[in-house]
Design a protein that fits this description.
mainly alpha, 0% strand, disordered N terminus
Length: 221
């Protein structure tokens, strides 16, 4: 089983957890566990990268997850809670373990960000952000031409790296120029929160952010 170290504390974790629950409340009950499992996987991978003092150790742990996810396409899930949740919630919706492995690739790129920031951010945006939003849209049963930009912008903004902020802002510009389909509003809400994260005045858990989420759910903008 993949070893783990305590991840360093992140600011506003409780407020962000509340916002996550609000977003998941938009999801139909039958699909909610699947999307929650997808986001929990992403959280776990992010914890590994942020806690990796030695990039080689971080890469070894990510490799374990990549191999474990790909193996779900051919074998039952081992006794690991996240993998079991994925097998129960995501695989029945046609989400392959190999596709989930690409999210691991997106996080792995961050381990080498200091050597080539532009390349690492591009891979992270595509393999983590765009892929995660594409898989989530499959669960939610919708499509939109803005999904790739929304996913990439969300990934770059939530990476919390100053080198990613300009790219994140560019990808998230025009996010709500047109109304989002109701089925995809959990994802557009995630992107909207990520855009707020780029504004230091819009703190997680604030009344303004909560009100914006509610307005977005009602109107899609």
């Amino acid at each position: 089983m993949e070893p783990s170290d305590p991840a360093p504390g992140q600011p506003d974790m409780e407020a962000r957890a509340i916002e996550r629950r609000i977003v998941l409340s938009y999801v139909p009950a039958a699909t909610r566990p699947a999307l929650a499992a997808l986001l929990t996987l992403d959280d776990r991978l992010g914890e590994i990268v942020r806690a990796a003092r030695d990039p080689l150790i971080g890469q070894m742990r990510l490799t374990w997850w990549h191999e474990a996810l790909v193996a779900l396409d051919a074998a039952p899930a081992p006794a690991e809670p996240i993998l079991r949740a994925i097998a129960a919630g995501l695989l029945p919706h046609g989400v392959a373990g190999a596709a989930l492995g690409r999210i691991v690739d997106g996080w792995e790129a961050v381990l080498a960000i200091d050597s080539d920031p532009a390349a690492a951010l591009a891979v992270h945006a595509a393999e983590r952000g765009e892929m995660l939003f594409a898989l989530a849209a499959r669960l939610l049963g919708g499509g939109d031409a803005r999904l790739a930009d929304a996913g990439a912008g969300w990934a770059l903004a939530t990476l919390c790296d100053p080198r990613a902020q300009a790219s994140a802002a560019a990808r998230l510009a025009g996010l709500t120029d047109r109304r989002w389909p109701r089925a995809l509003r959990p994802l557009s809400a995630m992107a909207l929160l990520a855009r707020d994260d780029l504004d230091s005045a819009a703190r997680p858990g604030s009344i303004g952010r909560a009100a914006r989420l509610f307005r977005h759910w009602l109107g899609g903008r």
